[in-house]
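Regression report. Comparing outputs from two consecutive submissions.

Submission 1:
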Amino acid sequence: MDSTPNFLSSLFRFFLFSLFLAHLQQHVVEGSRVSPIGLGPKMLFVFGDSYADTGNNRKALASSWKLPYGITFPGKPAGRFSDGRVLTDYIAGYLRIKTPIPYRWRKELSGRVKYGMNFAYGGTGVFDTLVAEPNMSSQIDFLQQLLNDSVYSKRALKTSVALVSLAGNDYSNYLATNASVAGFPAFIGSVVNQVKVNLKRIHNSGVRKIAVTALQPLGCLPRSTVLFAFEQCNGTENALVDLHNQLLVEAVKDLNKETNSSSFFVLDVYNAFWSVFNQKEAGQGSVSPTFENPFKPCCVGVSAAFSCASVDENGVKKYTLCSNPKSKFFWDTVHPTQEGWRAVYSTPVLQNSLKLFW
């Protein structure tokens, strides 16, 4: 029997599979090699939300898989809530390892699990939010399952580090579902207490160093500054952020004391954001001289009813887009642009925080 047709069929299937893997690889952005640290960690594990998500959200639901997201890098939507790279990519670059693959692609890109894994889902929080995606506790459960399945070993995790991103979704959810503003400080305490539990779980899994991001100045996000014509921040919101960050620092100190280690530290995103904002205000511009107004986003819905990536039933855009994303710190009403993240990453305050990684 002639085996040529079977051979050609197998070759064709292999060709299609190769194209599929190549397509997935485009979604897995390499971290930039920007700050060598010598012999460092071999794996990075990421937990949290859209500030760190590199493609876990479901395509049918997330704006991160729709235009104009991803137009700067990789040139099309790739699951990141930005026009390009996000915090995870820059952290991976600093550690001189490849950006870890999103958890949802772990089977298709099994060869990349050796660099770690990204469990972060955009829109999620420490507790459940209005987004139907895994909260942080569930994300840690995913890591535990991979340990149970022998994808990783506790011994292997001794040469790994973790990034835990907190961008405030718990607080947005609280305001959307709870009318008791007076209870906000107590809720902040409960969020930080749960963060402490989560950090200890990650440490118990075997991860050597764990960085948790301080909360960025929420009152300076465009969704808040729009009320002030994008000219100033909401001081009330930032006062609540200060409380969160104070409690977070205390929690990290407690964890290091309890474990008799220096395994936990805060990645000072809060002051890194302010460094960028204040440089513009002071006219120094050494980090990035191109941010004309750091509080005004590049992509925004044409009205309050629409957001970046919104289209009507005929596919007509319901958003406006700036001519040059590099000139803007914020991409949409919540997330920085790639250039914004690069500026944050490049600040001395964040570089000093990163030195604690290894």
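Submission 2:
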Amino acid sequence: MFHGSMVALVTPMEEDGFICESALERLVEFHVSQGTDAIVAVGTTGESATLDVDEHCRVLRLVVEFAAGRVPVIAGTGANSTAEAIDLTRVAMQMGVDACLLVTPYYNKPTQEGLYRHYRAIAEAVPIPQILYNVPGRTAVDLLPETVERLANISNIVGLKEATGDLDRARLLLERCGDRLDLYSGDDATSLEFMLAGGKGIISVTANVAPEAMHRMCAAALAGDRAAAIAADAPVKALHQALFVESNPIPVKWALHDMGLIPPGIRLPLTPLSAALHAPLREALQAAGIPLGSCQ
């Protein structure tokens, strides 16, 4: 349903932590002009964990408004409470998003049966396309392939963002349910091989700063053109590592500020990028041919 380079969009903030609407509009225009295939708003990279419900909904409403139908909008609506996830997903659908991305319930560590019932309850309650999101490094719970396979039988569960970076896991998922679900990489560093194996795209952090390159890489990989995909990926390959030198979205927000696209704000408990990491990240941006703004 959704293919290619899907940016895991940051939520731009002023230095005092307030959401910057003008920068959010600038980012949406940047992605439309650079060929990004879909915008994922208020996910992990969008600091969903520190936005209150009103802010969460406000960002979704603004992104839908700014995108104006020119690019699909996927809303992060996951929660560790099934009832809250249902409420957020319903509100997002009413706002006009194209699909919802639902992270596994974090902290409370449900069983596989609990995960299955959680996602089934949301899908049955809200008739919008839904994408599962597995990122055990953050949530302390792993959505196993056999549970994904069960969920693939639910008609409006249309995809899975698999962010383990484990290509063996990706191949197993593709084999077991790739005919029923679109499978997306959630790991920039392994996304090229994920797509060449049969994945349909990536929900990307790197696409925040290099949207055109990520779009070209995805297009080539989806076409099965390994050489062209490798060539497109080569300039940004170092960014796949450099943007994770501290917890996401710390590095990518610093990079976007250095590019002159957003203010410097980030919310506690996240802190600005450590000073010792500025030069290496800037070198990776420059190696990728990314123009920097006046924030140096």
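Expected: both submissions complete independently.
Actual: both completed, but the second showed a warning that disappeared on reload.
Relevant detail on submission 2: The domain at 4-234 is CATH 3.20.20.70 (TIM Barrel).
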